[in-house]
Amino acid sequence: MPDTRVRRAAALTTGLVVGAAALVGVALLSLLVGAQPLPLGTVLDALLHPDPALQQHLIITESRLPRTEVGILAGIALGLSGAIIQAVTRNPLAEPGILGVNAGAGFFVVIGISVFGLKSLTGYVWFGFAGAAVAAVVVYTIGSFGRGGATPVKLALAGTALTAVFLSFTTAVLVTDAATYDQFRFWQVGSLTARSTDVAAKALPFMAVGVLIALASTRVLNALALGDDVASSLGQHVGRARLIAAVAVVLLCGTATAMAGPIVFVGLIVPHAARILTGPDHRWLLPYAMLLAPILLLLADVLGRVITETGEVQVGIVTAVIGAPFFVAMARRRRLAEL
Amino acid sequence: MTGIVAATRRREARRAGTVAIALGLVVLVLFALSLSYGSFQVSLPDIVRSLLGQPTPPQVDYIVRTLRLPRAILAVLTGLAFGIGGAIFQNLVRNPLASPDVIGVTAGASCSAVLAIVLFGASGGLITVIALTGALVTGALIYVLAWRGGGMGTYRFVLVGIGIGAALAGVMSFLLTRTDIRVAQDALIWLTGSLNARDWDDVRPLALAGLVLIPAALLLGRLLGGLQLGDDMAKGLGIGVERGRLGLLLTGVLLVATATAAAGPIAYVSFMSGPIAARLVRGGRPALLPAGLVGAAVVLAADFIGAHAIPGIIFPVGVITGVIGAPYLLWLLATANRTGRGE
Fold first, then answer.
1. Which candidate from B163, B185, B316 shows the least CB-CB separation from A324?
2. What is the ipTM of this complex?
3. Stated pTM of the model
4. Which residue, A146, A282, B82, B322, has fewest beta-carbon neighbours within 10 Å?
C-alpha cells in the first residue's frame, strides 16, 4: 500500500509541474495572440528591455501583459474559491457567486459610478471589493441565524436572496441613469481588458493572503467535506472552520470580481475538473484548481480575441458559453447532492 | 382516523377558499385604486359608469378606458400568469428556488426578445411572438436535456435550467455591450419588466392565453398533490406521471412566456408569489389560485408605487417588485432561520 501511495504522490507532483509549464505556455500565448500577432522574439524583447518608443513593445507592456497578469490572478482566485465553497457547502453546484459576492460587487460599482462619478477602472476595484465583502458578511450573518449555525443550505439560500436584493437595487439605479449604465454594462460582462496596468499589483496583497489562508486550510476542508458531525468528531471547530473558509473566499473572489468583473462558471467547473485528476483530497485539489483555472481563463480570453473578425468577445461570455454545456453534461451524468 | 383526515382536509379547503376570496378582494381594491388615482383623479362612481358605458364627464372615458384600464388589466393578468406559472414549477420540483426566472425559462424569452430588439430593432407584436418562441424552445431544450433513462428527474431539470439560464444571461450581456446605449437602455427596461405605454393590443393576446391556460393550470393542478409524493407513489395512485408532469410544465411555460412577452420578465413575481400564498393558506397542499392572486396583487401594487412614489419618475414595475420582493425574501429567510425552521 505505501508503495502505491508514494507512486500516486509522485504522479500528482509530476502533474503539478506539467500544469505549471502549461500555465507558462498559455501565458506566453496570451502575449503573442491578438489583433496584431507578435513574434516570440519581440515579446521577449519587450518583456526584458521595454522600449516605450516602439509601438509593438507598448502593445505588450500596456495591454497584453496587464491582461495576462489579471487573467492569472483572477483565475487562481476563482479556482481556489470555487473549490473551497464547494467543500464548505458540500454542494457540487456551489460557486463563489452563490454567496452574493458578484452581485454585491456589481451594486457597489454602480454606486461608485453613479454617485461618486468614478471614471477609471482603478477606482472600480475598491468599490467592487467593498461590495463583495459586505455581501459576504451579510450572507454569513443571515445564514448563521437559528439552529445549527451557518449550514450549507442556509448559506446558499441567503446568497441567492441577497443576490436578488443587490440586483434589483442595481437595476433601479441603472434604468434611471443612462450614463452609468453605459459604463456599467462593460464591467458587468466580465473582461480582462482595459484594466489599468497596476491593477494586478494592487490586488496582489489581498490575493496573497487569500491564497495562504486557502492552502493552509486544506486539512480543515477535508474534514468539513465529510459532514459536520464527522468534522467535529475529528476535532474541528466547525463554525470557526467555516468562518476561515469564508474569509478566504471573500478575499479571493472579491479581488477577482473587482479586477475582472463577474466571471461565471470558472469557479464552478475547475474544481470538478481538478477533482477528476486528484480525487477528493483538498491538499492536492487546491493546487490543481489553482493551476487549471488560470489556464482555462487565459485560453478563453485568447479564444475571445481571435473568434471574431472585428473586436473581441469578452472572456466572461466565452466562459459562460463554454461552461453551460459542461454544467449541463455534469448535471446529467452525476448523482448530485440535493440542495 | 379517516374522520380526522377528512376534517383536516375540509378545514384546509375552507381556509384556502377564504384566503382566495380575501386575496380577490385585495386585487379588486388595488384594481379600482389604479383606475382612479393619478394626475387626473377619477371618482369611483365615475369609473363604474365609464366601465358600464353610461354617460360620464368629459375625458373620463378616455382616461379610464384607453389609458388606465389596459394597464390595470395587464397588471392583473401578468400577475396571475407569473404567480400560477411559478407555483406550478415550485410545487412540481418541490423547491422554492425552482421558479421559472431561476431555471432559465424566462431567460429564454428575454434573450430572444433582446436579440430581436438589438439586432432587428423589433417592437410591439413581433417581440411578443419572438419571446414566446424563445421561452418554448428553451423549455423544450431543458426538458429534453433533463430526460434520461426513460424519465425526467426534477432535480436534474432545475440544474439543466440553471446552466442554460446562465449561458443565455452571458449572451444577453454580450448583446447589450454591442449596441448603442439608447437601445441597450430600452432593452434593460424591457428586461426589468414594465407596464408603461401598454394598450389594448398588448392585452388581447395575454387575455386569450389566460382564458385557456389559467383554467387548464387549475385543473391540472389537482395532479400536483399526487406528484409531490414522489414518482413511485404517484404511479401507485394511478397518475400518469410523465404525461401529467409534461402537461403541467407546458402550461407553466406558456403562462410565464405569454406574460413575459406582454410585460417583460417582471422580477421575482413568479418567485415569491407561491411561497407567500403557501404561507397564507398553510396546509401542505399546492395553492395555485391563491399564488396567482398574490401575483396579481403584487404587480398591481408595485406598478402603482412605481408610477406614483416619486413624482416625475416612473419606475418600471420590475424595479419595485425587486426592491420590495427581495428584502421580503431575506426577511422570510431570516425569520424562518431564527425560529429554527430553516434547515
1. B163
2. 0.71
3. 0.78
4. A146
